[in-house]
């Protein structure tokens, strides 16, 4: 990644499970992003009153780390995930929406778009694959959207959505590869910085990359941002290693939220400049993080919502002594029966 090529001296090298270099926060990394902090500030003002300002839980020592850990409880967001931020920012900044709104989704994005469209009085059609979680489909329907289920893969839902948009002129809200979406998601970091303690490093789960693009754009050059992907769904890591977006196979317990096959050129352009590292976690580590959050903290999150914590618990990311760690818990749309212990 370009940002790591000229980090300068004074950085302590460690290792991650992925084998990529890990840098302790003894020196800030000078990086830039195509997505400006002003765009994120504007998004925050635009969506204020439509989204929740989610709380931050700070603990002095937890999750196997001897230093402080700050949890951003974004799973408490409307519709159960951070995606409400990008959805509201997109719709509130759009023009003529009389033809309605459409989106393809594995679940959380569709729920967020349906919520935003309902609040703004817009008709909505959400296209989901057959593999979508019933719990997430139920959330979409509860928001009043028309749900179209079809195809075995997310790509099938996307193709159906594209046809509908071409026929009707409805606005398609992309789940990650669009600047209004990214700017909306970046407001998570703005809030976190205002409400929480100072951080050296934040761990962020990655699906299509819209969330980490916004967060890393806000903190670029000031806080180290680490992406966390399942071993079976590593579109961002593959793009950064290849020097451009590439298709990957997807097979993970978190595929319905972290299952993008390709991050696209915009996400790649931002993340190659702003993301310090990407680490991989196993499905077993994700499940273990889910279980620990429920058992010890009574926090119920979906697999994708637990992935960032899995990196800390499993050792995929190994912080330095005293490193101030932030972990984003980003999604709550889980079948509670899977958490019974």
Would you give an account of this structure?
40% of the residues lie in helices and 15% in strands. It is built from 13 helices and 12 strands. The strands form 3 sheets. A 6-stranded mixed beta sheet has the order 3-4-12-9-10-11, sandwiched between helices. It has a 4-stranded parallel beta sheet with strand order 7-6-5-8, sandwiched between helices. It has a two-stranded antiparallel ribbon with strand order 1-2. It is globular. The chain starts with a helix and ends in a 12-residue tail after the last strand. The N terminus is likely disordered.
What percentage of the residues does DSSP assign to strands (E)?
A: 15-25%
Sequence stretches where pLDDT stays below 50 over 5 or more residues: 1-30
Q: Would you count the extended β strands for me? A: 12
The helix/strand order is HEEHEEHEHEHEHEHEHEHHHEHHE
Helix content: 40-55%
Alpha-beta classification: alpha/beta
Radius of gyration: 19 Å
Which outline best applies? globular
The largest beta-sheet arranges its strands as 3-4-12-9-10-11
* DSSP summary: helix tally: 13
